[in-house]
């Protein structure tokens, strides 16, 4: 998919006119919270979702997380949306949402998928030319649930308190505790303990959500109704291309096939039907291919040639390249090699996107074109939106995706792969009303869909709760919601999930 250099003039004018016609929000000045000294500002808006107009209140600001001695540890920035005119607030679901990284703010789910405003993109997911625009999100889930978008410490506007080191929050358990304590505090301050409660996480945010399911239960007695895992990674062994770990090579293969299919690099007999091509790749990956990888040096020359030929057929790569890779093609090599003859690379977050490197001879891409396609649009619109529409002002840089959280402390997972899947299994076993929704993009090379399948199938759930996990698939990448057809399907799938979870 080549990037368009400009959008039609009429479309740009339409967005400008829509922005100009949008009524000014009723803003209240930022006010200190009497109990916690927090900076909060509220505004009132309306949006049309699924053909129905919804009035809502937006609250943007920081909550101070303190220890039990009352000493402030951090200010966590959040944006909350609550539907107006609800008589029985206790029956209204509330969803706490965040992205991953580690080091990412919640901007992607906030302005991409769930919130009442979204970044304007082409239907394919390609950006419009700057300056960028926000439009009303007609596929928001605000009709289904109130929303609270949380920026973990050092992301967004969230910062450690004066005299407190950031590394106190930069780790698996530290992060879970600070976000979990924020959730408890929010439920208390806004009197939502009796509301149905959900978590929504993307990427490493799914890791956080699964870990939170246990922490919230064990530490605060907070039992969830549902968890939405978008582009999930619960078991890092499935993603880590490290020497001695052959698992990712098999689990990434179907996404390699999908990518090669999209760029028309597969043989003619596979190019006609994506689902057929994926079915063949999945069968090969969990059968003949994984057995060959397990044999290692015991694999005969005949077997190696046979497997190599099939692997080349399913990846769009040459037989020679596959054999020289010892039948093990990692993500960096694949994204550089697939379109090398075109002097192009493919994206990691979304392999539909093409990138242009300095040269076509290197081993790995210079950058991820799928991240470059959205970075500018989400950054500019968030900074504009927070001040102009939500009325929250700060001169701090809003950290969209920062490396300042590194090195990340993996705690008990040092010298092994982090795996929070057992925590999720335990939470679902103890709380048998907990439902989980897993959304996967076929073109996601950051958290491949087959790795999510593998993790779910290895949860070890009892039959009494095994049907409480729903997986859904989309013809897009890591942020499947940037692709309008996939976003429409995602919205329907999430609505069905909330309905099912609400019946428990």
Structure notes:
It is a single chain. The chain is α/β, with parallel strands linked by helices and 504 residues long. It folds into 2 domains: 38-237 and 378-502, Alpha/Beta hydrolase fold, catalytic domain (Rossmann fold); 241-367, no CATH class. 37% of the residues lie in helices and 18% in strands. Strands 1, 2, 3, 4, 5, 6, 9, 10, 11, 12, 15 and 16 form a 12-stranded mixed β-sheet that branches. It has a two-stranded antiparallel ribbon with strand order 7-8. It has a two-stranded antiparallel ribbon with strand order 13-14. Strand 15 (435-441), helix 13 (449-457) and strand 16 (469-474) form a beta-alpha-beta unit. Helix 5 (247-262) runs antiparallel to helix 7. It is globular.
Furnish the topology, listing elements before pairings.
Blueprint: H1 9-21, E1 26-27, E2 31-32, E3 39-49, E4 52-66, E5 72-83, E6 94-98, H2 107-114, E7 117-119, E8 134-136, E9 146-150, E10 159-160, H3 172-189, E11 197-203, H4 204-220, E12 226-232, H5 247-262, H6 268-271, H7 274-295, H8 301-315, H9 319-324, H10 331-337, E13 345-346, E14 354-355, H11 369-388, H12 421-430, E15 435-441, H13 449-457, E16 469-474, H14 484-502
Parallel strand pairs: 6-9, 6-11, 11-12, 12-15, 15-16
Antiparallel strand pairs: 1-3, 2-3, 3-4, 4-5, 5-9, 5-10, 7-8, 13-14
Features:
504 residues; alpha/beta; two-stranded antiparallel sheet; 14 helices; single chain; twelve-stranded mixed sheet
């Amino acid at each position: 998919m080549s990037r368009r250099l400009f959008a039609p003039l009429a479309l740009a004018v339409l967005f400008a006119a829509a922005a100009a016609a949008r009524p000014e929000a009723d803003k209240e000045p930022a006010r200190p919270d009497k109990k916690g000294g927090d900076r909060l500002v509220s505004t009132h808006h309306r949006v049309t979702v699924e053909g129905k107009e919804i009035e809502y209140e937006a609250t943007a600001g920081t909550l101070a997380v303190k220890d039990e001695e009352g000493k402030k540890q951090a200010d966590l920035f959040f944006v909350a949306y609550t539907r107006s005119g609800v008589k029985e607030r206790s029956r209204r679901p509330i969803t706490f949402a965040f992205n991953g990284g580690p080091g990412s703010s919640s901007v992607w789910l906030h302005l991409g998928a769930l919130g009442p405003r979204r970044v304007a993109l082409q239907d394919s997911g390609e950006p419009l030319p700057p300056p960028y625009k926000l439009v009303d999100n007609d596929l928001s889930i605000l009709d289904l649930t109130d929303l609270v978008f949380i920026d973990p410490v050092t992301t967004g506007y969230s910062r450690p308190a004066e005299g407190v080191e950031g590394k106190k929050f930069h780790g698996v358990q530290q992060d879970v505790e600070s976000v979990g304590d924020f959730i408890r505090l929010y439920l208390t301050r806004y009197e939502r303990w009796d509301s149905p409660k959900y978590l929504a996480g993307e990427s490493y945010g799914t890791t956080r959500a699964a870990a939170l399911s246990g922490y919230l239960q064990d530490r605060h007695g907070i039992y969830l109704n549902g968890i939405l895992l978008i582009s999930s990674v619960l078991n890092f062994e499935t993603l880590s291309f490290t020497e001695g770990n052959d698992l990712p090579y098999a689990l990434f293969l179907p996404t390699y096939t999908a990518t090669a299919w999209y760029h028309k690099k597969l043989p003619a007999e596979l190019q006609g039907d994506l689902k057929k091509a994926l079915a063949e790749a999945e069968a090969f990956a969990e059968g003949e291919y994984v057995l060959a990888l397990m044999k290692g040096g015991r694999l005969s020359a005949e077997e190696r040639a046979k497997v190599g030929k099939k692997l080349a057929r399913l990846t769009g790569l040459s037989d020679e390249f596959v054999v020289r890779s010892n039948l093990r093609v990692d993500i960096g090599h694949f994204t550089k090699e697939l379109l090398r003859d075109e002097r192009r690379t493919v994206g990691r977050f979304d392999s539909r996107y093409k990138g242009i490197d300095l040269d076509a001879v290197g081993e790995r891409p210079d950058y991820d074109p799928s991240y470059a396609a959205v970075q500018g649009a989400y950054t500019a619109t968030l900074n504009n939106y927070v001040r102009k529409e939500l009325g929250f002002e700060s001169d701090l840089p809003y950290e969209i995706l920062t490396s300042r959280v590194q090195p990340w402390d993996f705690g008990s997972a040092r010298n092994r792969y982090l795996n929070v899947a057992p925590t999720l299994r335990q939470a679902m076993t103890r709380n048998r009303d907990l439902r989980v929704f897993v959304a996967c993009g076929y073109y996601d090379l950051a958290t491949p869909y087959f790795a999510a399948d593998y993790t779910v199938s290895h949860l070890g759930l009892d039959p009494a709760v095994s049907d409480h996990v729903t997986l859904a698939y989309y013809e897009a990448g890591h942020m499947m919601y940037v692709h309008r057809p996939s976003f429409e399907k995602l919205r329907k799938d999430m609505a069905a999930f909330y309905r099912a979870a609400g019946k428990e």
